[in-house]
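ugh finaly. both done.
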Amino acid sequence: QVQLVESGGGLVQPGGSLRLSCAASGSIFSINIMGWYRQAPGKQRELVAAITSGGSTNYADSVKGRFTISRDNAQNTKYLQMNSLKPEDTAVYYCFAGRFTSWSRVQYDYWGQGTQVTVSS
């Protein structure tokens, strides 16, 4: 089992920045990808960003150039730096961890508790 604990999020004005963190513990040897999905009311869940244990990254087109996913040296914690935030970024952000074979074959095994990000003036 892998436990994911998220932190960060909150209320920010348009154009502002936030950083989300996701700390993994437990059987982390069983996972090789982590990232975030988000879901806004009335909208489909959307992959925001992900990073593999090899350092390969993937971003939603809507966040490219604004969001950056990174990891600490021990690779147990991932960060999502969100800059130039827009009202349409408002959603609940869920950290995930799983197994990566290719970007079209990802097994989502574990989920964090979710954290609210609200972008509003």
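ok and the 2nd:
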Amino acid sequence: QVQLVESGGGLVQAGGSLRLSCAASGTIFRIDAMGWYRQAPGKQRDLVATITSRGSTNYADSVKGRFTISKDNAKNTVYLQMNSLKPEDTALYYCNILGVTTSLTRFDSRGQGTQVTVSS
């Protein structure tokens, strides 16, 4: 079983920065990809950024140049550095991690979410 613990959300003024963290623990054999998604009230859940085991990254157009995804393999942790935040970035942010357990079964785990609120 794989558990994810997210942290780093909060309230920030427009133009400010936040750094989200998501630590995975449990019966992890290998992590293949990590990512962040967000969902604003009344809207669908959208991809924010992903990073593969090899470090390849992908970003939503709306966050390119402002957000940076990174990871610490030793800690099974993924980060999302968010700069130049805008009110439209306000949402519940979820991390999602894909990989293989020690039982050699695939897992696709999502965290509980951390709220990011950007005031104008």
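summary for the 2nd one i guess: The two ends are 41 Å apart (CA to CA).
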